[in-house]
Batch of 2 targets.
Target 1
Amino acid sequence: MLKKVLLEFKTHQGSYGLTFFILTFSVTLFLFFSSLYYHLYLFSREAARSLALTVYLAPDLRPQTQKRLLQKFRALPGVKEVRLVAKREVLRELQRIFREDPEILQNLDLSKLPDFLEIHFQDPLRDLPRVQPQLRKLEKEPGVLRIRYAQSWLGRLWHLSQLLRRLLYLSMALLLASLLFLVVVTVNLTLEKQREEIEILSLLGASPGYIGRPKMMVAFVLGSGAFLAAFALLHLFESYLQGALAGVIPFLNLRLSLLPTNYLILGTGGMGFFCALLSWLAVQRYFS
Amino acid sequence: MGDLQYNSPKFWGKGIALGRVLLRLEKVSKIYPPSIAALKNISFELERGEFIFVTGPSGAGKSTLLKLIFGLERPSSGRMFYGDLDYARLHRRHLVHLRRRMGFIFQDFRLLPEKTVFENVYLGLEVLGVSGSVARERVERILKRLGLAARQNQKVKTLSGGEMQRVAIARAVVREPELLLADEPTGNLDPERSQEILRILEELNAEGITVVLATHDESLVRERHRRVIALQEGRLFHA
Ligand SMILES: Nc1ncnc2c1ncn2[C@@H]1O[C@H](COP(=O)(O)OP(=O)(O)OP(=O)(O)O)[C@@H](O)[C@H]1O
Ligand SMILES: [Mg+2]
């Protein structure tokens, strides 16, 4: 069998070589963009988790009013935790920060310092937009100075990563479609070149499987090989990419080596099987 | 018994029940489009172990008859039995299995010119699923027998016509077929060579292979007392 596969490859060196090259190239591009997406996704998810709402309270509120407000915010849907940060705490924190030069604080009028509520949501990206109308109403409550919404650029980043995901699906579909085209055309090409031989083999009683099996094996090797080659290529340029991109997109920390081994195995096997399947389909089509 | 049953792959696991009669044609006709009647109403039986000639002038339908038997062409009407299997309208996928029980020596050899003698003959076995040292031994034995041992590593395109003819025979008989169909196997050979080829086929027949040999060379038929299917313009005349 190995001899057959080698012979099959040798007979159609040109076609298979070119196919391998194109496969590797497109998979490399695809992997590159998916890793971009993956890291953007990880980053924005982590960042989004810490999104919190800050509600500044009017100074010198009565404890009952404070408590009532606290309860109202706690009743919002999706709220995980509401924390009251009192003026004293803020002061202590400021004192800690300006330990070295306490005179800075003496020059400020700290009596105007408000207490505030820090509201954490279970899933800020989902819950924040949902409670928006209620927040607007709550902002008018007596005792509430102002509600500061979570850093909105984070939300936008998150939406960008969602968009990227959709683009990724699209490019995945495109990749699969072009793989389909490429592999089917290549296999057809090799079949066409062997037309005479195949005719004779069928006269001898060869099944499509007999003729197609070496082609399937070659397609499997090409597919999984292309994935591995693409992965190796990216790996090879990893440090280069890191150096080049780190300055442009600050949060991007390209760590391809962190692509989980399962995905490597899955990708290699998946690509191989997909290409083998396509080659099988091409052979079936040829003989039907 | 309906054809459906025979068309199911399951059937092939059981094989075909062979009685005394290996092949039976019932009122078989073949009309090539648009309206060339190559065979008209042909009926005959072929017993296991027989050696028959199919004769007739050029265009009489000899090749067409052999192709029908081999399943390369489908009859326009009539029934064809291989053992107890009616295969006139069998699905192509299953026909392949039937074809593996037969050997066909083509008028134009149908060898792979870029491959060696050995490889060509080996292919005949390999498509049956026989490979490795068992297959190699069988190929070597048959090549020796046909006087091709010295040629086995030569490319087929460098052989003479007579040698190619013998390679074609070797490829067909290495499979030890039940039925050997030979279409003008002496077509391009001088009389001496022709006799030699016929002797080889008769030897194989003596070993149990049923042979159908198509030829327009009456001299080959005359001195042998074998059954003859004589065709003329697609009709059958028993000699
Ligand atoms: N594929 C085809 N399409 C149309 N007509 C065909 C086809 N094959 C054969 N014929 C016709 O059928 C008739 C029988 O042809 P066949 O080849 O069986 O004759 P033959 O007896 O083998 O002749 P020869 O001795 O020259 O080989 C001929 O008239 C031929 O032209
Ligand atoms: Mg003929």
Target 2
Amino acid sequence: MSNFDTSQRIFRFSSSEAIKHVILIFGALIVLLPFYVMLSYSLKAPAEIMQNTGGFFGTQEPFRDDYCIKLGNAVADCMVTPWIYNYQTAFEKAPLLRYLLNGILVTFSIFFIQVVIALPCAYALAKLRFWGRETVFALVLFCLLIPVHAIALPLYIMLAKLGLTNSYAALVIPWTISVFGIFLMRQFFMTIPDDLIDAARMDGMSEYSIIWNVMLPSAIPALMAFAIFSVVAHWNDYFWPRIVITGNRDLFTPPLGLREFKGDADGDNFGPMMATAVVIVTPLLVAFALAQKRFIDGITLSGMK
Amino acid sequence: MANIRLSNISKRFGNTDVLNGIDLDINDREFVTLVGPSGCGKSTLLRILAGLESADTGTVSIDDTDVTRIRPADRNLSMVFQSYALYPHLSVAQNMLTPLKLRDLSFPQRLPLIGPLLAKTEYKTLYQQIKNTAQILKIENLLDRKPGQLSGGQRQRAALGRAMVRDPLAFLMDEPLSNLDAALRVHMRSELTQLHQRLRATFVYVTHDQSEALTMSDKMAVMMKGKILQYGPPDEVYHNPQTIDVARFIGSPAINIIPGSTDETGCVSLFGKSLETHVSYPHSTLHIGLRPEHLSLSENNGNSFPGIIRHIENLGSDLFYHLETEGMSQRIVVRSSQSEGKRLPLGSLTYFKAQKNKLLIFGESGNRLTVKSQKLAEVA
Ligand SMILES: Nc1ncnc2c1ncn2[C@@H]1O[C@H](COP(=O)(O)OP(=O)(O)OP(=O)(O)O)[C@@H](O)[C@H]1O
Ligand SMILES: [Mg+2]
């Protein structure tokens, strides 16, 4: 009897819940639509893309690769299956693997240095008492309001004067101090009891060792949240690499790779372009899927009580 | 082990004086309790002693060496916190290992993974120390657990373990029992006392609970408003409080403070009755302190005072009668043992008498006045 009651309660239809879900599903569809298009285009032949035929997968009928013919090959050798052609071109025409490695190197260097700088700053702002602390924190908050684009030009000029444009340093250095990271970690450190830090001091830890051995392990959830923001932002960043990487294609990050297919003499080549886009977003999606639970813990910061 | 001397310690936070010129001498192997109401500066004093806070004036010395400017870790004291402050991401054993590692191992030996390979024998001795300590505290089976998987009492022991492993000069404890339930608290009290005897170390123990101070300590320092009002063995403080504030703070139920006065010879009277007790010179107002156990119900005779029973507190072994008396807004508490027979009904009129030799007499300013016997007064 009681079992029956609870099951009834669990499956009871609630109109407000239903409306919430309808709205959320609708929102999710809007967000997912571009992904659907991206995936679909990455599989289809150019003609199908232009004429908008072939459904999601396209017909996958072999078509003639004009570029191949231009190179003087026989027509029979130049018939290609659309999805294979798209992905092959993505990797061949642009050194996509190299771009992916660059992306990994740059995003992880940025994140690593950001953490190395933000944790001590956050610790000082949250737990040490010194003259002017509130002012410094106010400055941090103020810096949160500065849009990147506003300071892009001065930054570029500084890097250029130092002769650092077209280098990994140019991609990494401007992002190494993350005020958002400092702010986020400071808020989190505020919740860590002072006693814990005092206990560590009694045990003989130095302030730096407290940061790395006590604060860091307790701050993993917050750090995960910060990692998402930082890695996603810099993996996907198009603006800054576009500015500082002008000549050397070896330094391209994945989003710059998309440009390879834009505005060619033979027109836009959407199939390979979308295939590149798929390859670029996949690492993030896979990483998210693997660490989904921790990511969500991190975002809600509910990992610590 | 260690004697500790605090001299002339003062501390202000912003505009509030938290400590005003504190002097405290703690002998080797003593169990000293700092007790006082909330906010009187006990924790601050303990933190200054630990080195976690710096004093504005004054010096801290341990074993006759001035350590005022020395880092907490180098003072070789260990501290147990109210919240236990165990490292949440480490197991109990690793929690206990941390201070040992930091004291005994070099930097490369402390590194994770490589360290234990570099210094196998060192780690072995450290783990042996941890095991020994765990044995004393009966937490051997908890060594692999994280603090989050322990009960309050177990966490308390783990925190004690972390403090004990490195054999400090003295133990500092800031209300270590206040997060435990009542039964466990009483049990841990006796365990701590035993531990103190076993370790033969100096203990400095902060509490706002006077019964902890009375039961556990060799000496207690009663603090109020940033001053030590009295410092001495619990018996001394209880039976011989130097000020009215100490008398009021120590003892449960609280001492009865009754206004009194003297005649021109200095003879003290209570509720208009002369008590045949003299103070050295006449006072117009006095405070007379009488502990509930020094009052008893009695017949209506020339030495007793009337009161109406308003409340009865039954503690099992004892009964405490709260009596309303004429001219007193505060009720007077009288102890009576259960065996004294019949329980009197609420609202009934009864009489009580005082043991005159137990009177504590305080002047208007709250300082204790010396009492002279009638004979001496007559001689004078
Ligand atoms: N960091 C600080 N900044 C400002 N004021 C402080 C600070 N630490 C303590 N105080 C103040 O100093 C006074 C004494 O604090 P302390 O913690 O020593 O009291 P306590 O006797 O330990 O009280 P409790 O029994 O409640 O723990 C309090 O009034 C408190 O508000
Ligand atoms: Mg305190």
